[in-house]
Specification:
Helices cover about 40% and strands about 15% of the residues. By secondary structure, the protein is α/β, with parallel strands linked by helices. The mean pLDDT is about 95.
Length: about 375
């Protein structure tokens, strides 16, 4: 199998799987228990929190484990808005956010909040000027992703905090770093972020666990209630096997500079090879994240059919966009106003540190054969 759908999920490292298995079988105690098994489990919880915090240059008490990026995004958005609802009504976000952000702000809009959704240009970019103009003194939350999950555009999140301060707004700044963490530097303080979302399964960790980093002093309200776990921000017995696996995955993140040089070289190679195919158009901007390439394929097959064709006939795994969209028309490409024909025939390939040029060659060969055999307009 050739796997080029790493923005959907990554293959867990062997050491991560071994860590999860050990926690399930040997160190299975409840971390809230005071006997030996519980204390051992709690030690693993503390270690994982320490590792994640260190990777973000954050403090351990700022890390709150969740079931993944979707829960962390919902906790950040609803928690921030509920805590600040008396201070204003405006929420600023973009039209190209992950579904977990878009659906959350849609719900808040129905509750009476004003939602500003910034539209991208044709390359998927949002400008600093757009953000600065949208943020006013009535803004209570700004939620913007760092790296777009479908086209890889890098958003100007570093300007948000200054814009909030200049507007005199009470807004908290939330940055969804799911596609950035483990690939580029993610330091909440440097980003000016109050809330940062990360998840394990995008960095070769287990599914079902993520984290929300909440800046000390930033106040949000919980979304669920129960015990005292996670300082009551996210109560419930912690999923220690997954959390420990998350910590191990973070420990295994290589030097980012060396990793990114490799991925940039691979991306440049892939772009060059894809451009040799007649009619192929790359939708991702030249300065997009090198981990993601979105492209139009001139075949009569729709993107979802092409995904299935490549999987069934070539053993190649790519996607038609966000895995969470379940085959629906891409809201990102729609917001970029690329046109129905382009949207319906575009796919996403996404790399990890384990991707190779040989895999790219196999994909290009398969696409070439497919375009020749099943041309657009057939």
């Amino acid at each position: 199998m050739i796997y080029l759908d790493n923005s959907a999920t990554t293959a867990p490292e062997k050491a991560v799987a071994e860590k999860v298995y050990k926690m399930l079988t040997d160190n299975f105690g409840n971390p809230s228990s005071f006997h030996r098994a519980g204390l051992d489990a709690n030690a693993e919880l503390r270690h994982a929190r320490e590792v994640v915090a260190k990777s973000l240059s954050a403090e351990e008490e700022e890390i709150f484990f969740t079931s993944g990026g979707t829960e962390a995004n919902n906790l950040a958005i609803f928690g921030a808005v509920q805590a600040n609802r008396r201070k204003g009504k405006r929420i600023v976000t973009t039209a190209i956010e992950h579904e977990s952000v878009l659906e959350a702000v849609n719900e808040l809009e129905m509750q009476g909040f004003e939602v500003i959704r910034l539209a991208p240009d044709k390359s998927g970019k949002i400008s600093e000027e757009q953000l600065k103009e949208a943020i006013n003194k009535d803004t209570i939350l700004v939620s913007v992703m760092y790296v777009n999950n479908e086209v890889g555009s890098v958003l100007p999140v570093k300007c948000i905090k200054k814009a909030v301060e200049k507007a005199g707004a009470p807004a908290l700044v939330h940055i969804d770093c799911v596609q950035a963490y483990g690939k580029i530097e993610v330091k909440p303080k440097k980003l000016g972020a109050d809330l940062v979302t990360i998840t394990a399964h995008k960095i070769h960790g287990p599914k079902g666990v993520g984290a929300l980093c909440i800046r000390k002093g930033a106040r949000i309200l919980p979304r669920q209630f129960g015990g005292a776990q996670e300082s009551k921000i996210r109560p419930g017995t912690e999923a220690i096997p997954l959390i420990a696996g998350f910590g191990k995955a973070v420990e295994l993140i290589p030097d980012l500079k060396a990793q990114n040089e490799k991925i940039k070289d691979l991306c440049d190679y892939a772009r060059a090879q894809l451009k040799t195919l007649d009619g192929v158009i790359i939708n991702s901007a030249e300065d997009a994240s090198p981990y993601i390439i979105n492209l139009f394929v001139p075949s009569f097959m729709t993107s979802q059919t092409l995904v299935q064709h490549l999987s069934s006939n070539y053993g190649i795994c790519i996607s038609s966009g966000s895995a969470c969209a379940k085959g629906k028309k891409s809201h990102v490409l729609t917001a970029m106003k690329l046109g129905d024909s382009v949207i319906e025939h575009s796919i996403r390939i996404s790399f990890s540190r384990n991707s190779t040029k040989e895999e790219v060659d196999a994909l290009v060969k398969a696409l070439g054969e497919t375009i020749e055999k099943y041309p657009q307009g057939r």
